[in-house]
Amino acid sequence: MKLLKDKIIQDSEVLEGNIIKVDNFLNHQVDVRMINEIGKEFKKRFSDIKVDKILTAEVSGIAIATIVAQYFDVPMVFARKTESQNLDKDKYESKVYSYTKEKIYKIMVSKRYLNKNENILIIDDILANGKAMNGLIDIVNKSGAGIVGLGVVMEKGFQKGGKILREQGYRLESLAIIDSIKEDNIKFRK
Amino acid sequence: MKLLKDKIIQDSEVLEGNIIKVDNFLNHQVDVRMINEIGKEFKKRFSDIKVDKILTAEVSGIAIATIVAQYFDVPMVFARKTESQNLDKDKYESKVYSYTKEKIYKIMVSKRYLNKNENILIIDDILANGKAMNGLIDIVNKSGAGIVGLGVVMEKGFQKGGKILREQGYRLESLAIIDSIKEDNIKFRK
Asked: What's this model's pTM, rounded to 2 decimal places?
């Protein structure tokens, strides 16, 4: 997706440890026009499949998944990371290891919002090692619903998450795959 | 907003302590069609003012604020609750007391995303005691930007947050104000 790649080149910052900071348009300040184009692109790429629900995880996936759900005209569910009085006791859970935070956290979805007969499209902002994505996949599998696709805005192609998911047979669509970062020079996969 | 009130009557659950659970359309599973109508309604109610940016707080405000930002065609910023490598060191902070979680948490916005000359419309899902809203107001005030309005989907009119904000002169638009809850019987303000 050229528009997105141009935006990443123009607006992102590379931090230590190959972290690409995209907080001025994707995960702190949200450029809703750009997110709209992202939603449209996911709809195009998954136009041949039936999608009943969009699933993402809080926090950074929510804005994107909302717009994607708008394009598919289906509900969106976001996995919660914190227990709350508002969350059902009866829920699917998975554990996720965060490299940036160096800790394990739980993600949870109420059993009421994932059903056996549903086709789920999982959407997230960034795919690196794939730990968060694996947690979401694990939750859908526990529910018995079907995973019809995985969509991520930015994939770090030099980390192993995307490669493994494709080898496992998942239909993964990444709108921008970064193959290398060298001294602020971001190289995309063609 | 009749559509919303009907939805609350039909789909919400009343938990102990007058907590109204709306996780099947607002803050866990998101009914994007409903959120669309909510966005449209906020645009209508604030149609006479110039809005440069929508501000909300993670987590539950994000989906709504995204759609509202779409209607105003402006960027959306969500205050973050956790420190991260992706968050600027240079940021505005405020402390918020959570009654449901019985603890104080921090909300943070990078100084880059709130500017003196901007008109900010603050959007959130639920207003009760107003602690989260006050935190967002505090952050905007620290930035020197102007607050042109506050929009919440559901106000618990029997708690003091909304009353105080109106007395302070804020233009607060609540799409559904609940005046009382008695044995699952929800009464809206006319």
From this structure: 0.96
